[in-house]
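Tokens in:
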């Protein structure tokens, strides 16, 4: 531990010296790297090792990609230009990097304070008992059927022509908005279905049922094809990561160093690069082989991963920091969290209902694209910074880290299939949370799990009503004492 602390202090001293240079983008890379190292060290000391396929592990990976690798690529290959304004990075770029890194350190401290290292290896996960599963399975398959029905209704409403153009001709943001705006919540049908199928998959692997496991996983992959083809990475990556977390929890020796060396590059290509190939190059008329060869060029490989608008959260966040410093955007003192809590209330009933963080920031910073209903993400630290400044980042992220600490304990100690399912789904959404905001992207997580939780509640309600009657009937059959 002393060695770790000493190394962190040494690197911090180097960072302070390096950050005095004239290029804010390069200084941001140094500070982002140092603060990430401090955070990873805190998590490592608290856990004994970093559990990369846990909520805190995925958060560290996501933060590194967005707030460390992205600034490095911008400083190295994009002339230290802000990708949105195409102007040199300013001191607000450096401030944004420090605020984000401070938020990560605060998250790791909250995690360390809440996490308690288990005294034994994780126990085997027990499948849902057969009687409960017989009542629950029809409800889950009913959710799958309902979700597919809603999605087909969405296709019929927008028309097959528009649907195929959206899926196979690359993602047009304006067209995507027009389609989803006219279809309401029908578009979410496959998300409902995938949430139910994920619990079915979890039950299948915990009871060692390969047929059910392959069937449920196959349906999930099939339902993810439209999201993958349209390049909607934030919709299909969480599901894939969640399934992987379930597999690792049930089969702890599944991921060996060799398999990780093979799987991780494949996952990066399929999860981050291939969607952009489909969305951009193919839609511009390039052949499939030319698109792949272009994407595998070393510079283009990094550009497809961290060089585009999809990962430019720190660029957008730096504009927010500058706007707040100039007084263009005032502090909102928690209004975006009220907006999230009041999301189910129609605006017709509450006309003055607060708006979400993305709407506030996009309207203020990107008004022209906001009018076209095109929005950009500012990263997980943007919301607490918008509401309460740097103090908000420290406090909110510390609480968030404490929640992740408790959730990680549950993942390592529970034997419940349902608990592992919920933690795995939350882990899958960590990348989306780091890219977006807690208040908005947690709603997307709830879209997947709420139908499943409703089915569990119905099953428990039915079971509790049956138990007293069956108990009473058994008691009435007991022989009377003479």
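Residues out:
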């Amino acid at each position: 531990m002393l060695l770790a602390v000493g190394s962190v202090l040494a690197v911090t001293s180097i960072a302070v010296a390096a950050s005095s240079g004239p290029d804010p983008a390069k200084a941001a890379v140094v500070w982002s790297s140092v603060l990430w190292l401090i955070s990873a060290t805190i998590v490592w000391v608290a856990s004994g090792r970093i559990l990369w396929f846990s909520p805190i592990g995925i958060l560290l990976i996501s933060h590194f990609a967005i707030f460390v690798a992205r600034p490095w690529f911008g400083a190295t290959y994009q002339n230290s230009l802000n990708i949105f304004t195409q102007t040199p990075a300013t001191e607000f770029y450096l401030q944004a990097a420090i605020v984000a890194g401070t938020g990560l350190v605060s998250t790791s401290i909250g995690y360390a304070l809440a996490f308690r290292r288990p005294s034994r290896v994780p126990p085997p996960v027990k499948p849902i008992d057969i009687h409960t599963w017989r009542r629950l399975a029809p409800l889950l398959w009913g959710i799958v059927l309902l979700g597919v029905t809603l999605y087909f209704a969405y296709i019929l409403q927008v028309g097959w022509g528009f649907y195929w153009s959206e899926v196979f001709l690359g993602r047009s943001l304006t067209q995507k908005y027009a389609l989803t705006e006219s279809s309401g919540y029908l578009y979410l049908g496959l998300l409902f279905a995938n949430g139910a199928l994920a619990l079915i998959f979890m039950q299948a692997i915990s009871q060692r049922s390969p047929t059910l496991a392959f069937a449920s996983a196959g349906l999930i992959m099939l339902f993810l094809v439209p999201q993958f083809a349209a390049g909607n990475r934030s919709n299909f990556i969480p599901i894939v990561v969640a399934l992987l977390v379930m597999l690792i929890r049930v089969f702890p020796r599944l991921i060996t160093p060799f398999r990780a060396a093979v799987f991780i590059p494949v996952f990066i290509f399929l999860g981050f690069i291939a969607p952009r190939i489909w969305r951009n190059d193919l839609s511009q008329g390039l052949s499939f082989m030319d698109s792949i060869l272009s994407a595998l060029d070393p510079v283009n490989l990094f550009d497809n991963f961290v060089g585009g608008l999809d990962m430019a959260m720190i660029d957008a966040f730096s504009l927010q920091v500058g706007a707040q410093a100039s007084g263009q955007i005032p502090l909102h003192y928690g209004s975006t969290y009220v907006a999230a809590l009041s999301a189910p209330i129609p605006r017709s009933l509450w006309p003055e209902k607060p708006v979400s963080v993305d709407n506030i920031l996009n309207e203020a910073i990107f008004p022209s694209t906001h009018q076209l209903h095109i929005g950009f993400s500012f990263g997980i630290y943007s919301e607490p910074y918008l509401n309460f400044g740097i103090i908000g980042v420290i406090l909110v992220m510390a609480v968030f880290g404490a929640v992740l600490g408790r959730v990680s304990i549950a993942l390592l100690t529970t034997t419940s299939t349902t608990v592992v399912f919920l933690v795995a789904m939350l882990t899958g959404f960590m990348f989306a949370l780091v890219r977006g905001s807690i208040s908005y992207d947690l709603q997307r997580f709830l879209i997947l799990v709420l139908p499943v939780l409703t089915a569990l509640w119905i099953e428990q309600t039915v079971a509790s009503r049956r138990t007293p009657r069956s108990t009473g009937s058994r008691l009435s059959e007991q022989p009377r004492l003479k």
